[in-house]
Amino acid sequence: MKIYIAYTGGTIGMVPSDQGLVPDAAFADHLAQHLNASDELAHDFVIASYPTLIDSSNATPKDWQTIARDIESKWHDFDAFIVLHGTDTMAYTSAALSFMFAHSNKPIIVTGSQVPMYKVRTDAMINVMGAISACEEGVQGVFLFFAGRLIEGDRAHKAHTSDWQAFSSPNCPERGVLGIDWRWGSNESAQKPVVIQIPEMEEGAVTILPVFPGVQVAHWQGLLNDQVKGAVLLSYGAGNAPDKDPALLALLSTATERGVVIVNVSQCGAGSVAAGAYAAGSALVKAGVVSGQDITYEAAFVKLSFLIGLGLSSEEIKHSFV
Ligand code: ASN
């Protein structure tokens, strides 16, 4: 099997510096030595290190495009793709790749680690080996693999800062769980031809509006500036926000009337938005806010960025969330 592994940055390949951990340009070579040392891994690995390695907290939509273009340029030369990435924004990147490589017929697996590979007590190789194993099993699609769990790329959420199990799949069963052997979940996706679309995604086109006790117009005004075309509203519970402040609701209505798509996602982290179950949620519906249902806020943010980048109209984008 020909497997392309891209090191984009992140803890997995970091080493200590005066300022704390930083990505190491020599990591790709160390990993190559590990993988090539084993006779059990009879694959052709090509391991690339990106010219600018980042802590993934610096990632922007441009980085999603860079990774996607890199994979696209090698699409016909490899059977499988593994993206080594920092955990902080890994769920955003895996969601972005899911949208950009819809119905992928090859494995594209994003992984990384909580502890760098240079440490003795590290999860680096167990995650890399799990990702390779998923490729060997011939899974098709974009996934985030971490601590034995193969999560659909657009369903992952970073849920823990320090557990080995850093990611959850709040509203969707994992595709597979790897212990000694794989335990497979169901794969209901009908096989359609792969669609690769890598739009230009403007930075700042999408924002996140937090709901919190005492939130005021002034808090959101700057976030809903003229550059913004989409927003994820992080609501309470089943999709509620204060409905006793007319100015706040007017701000949302004005934005949706000028074409900003505002998607309601619960800050609970799991479960679904039930738009309109409470009066406090109905006010959002009246203001033109659409329900994100059970999408994660990471995937909602990325989906808005992707669809806006493709040039879809507000109505088309709203429709895609239904
Ligand atoms: N700050 C790191 C990153 O996201 C965290 C990690 O990879 N575990 O790049």
UniProtKB/TrEMBL annotation:
Signal sequence coordinates: none
Keyword terms: Hydrolase
SUPFAM superfamilies listed in its UniProt record: Glutaminase/Asparaginase
Any one GO MF annotation of this record: asparaginase activity
Cited InterPro entries: Asp/glu_Ase-like_sf (IPR036152), Asparaginase/glutaminase-like (IPR006034), Asparaginase/glutaminase_AS2 (IPR027475), Asparaginase_C (IPR040919), L-asparaginase_C (IPR027473), L-asparaginase_I (IPR041725), L-asparaginase_N (IPR027474), L-asparaginase_N_sf (IPR037152)
Superkingdom to which the source organism belongs: Bacteria
CDD domains, per database record: L-asparaginase_I
Active site residues per record: 11 (o-isoaspartyl threonine intermediate), 87
EC number(s) reported in the record: 3.5.1.1
Pfam families: Asparaginase, Asparaginase_C
GO cellular component, one term: cytosol
Transmembrane segments: none
Residues bound to substrate: 56, 87-88
Domain named Asparaginase/glutaminase C-terminal: residues: 206-321
GO biological process, one term: aspartate family amino acid metabolic process
Enzyme type, top EC level: hydrolase
UniProt domain L-asparaginase N-terminal: residue ranges: 2-182
Keyword Hydrolase: yes
Protein name: asparaginase
Organism encoding this protein: Marinomonas alcarazii
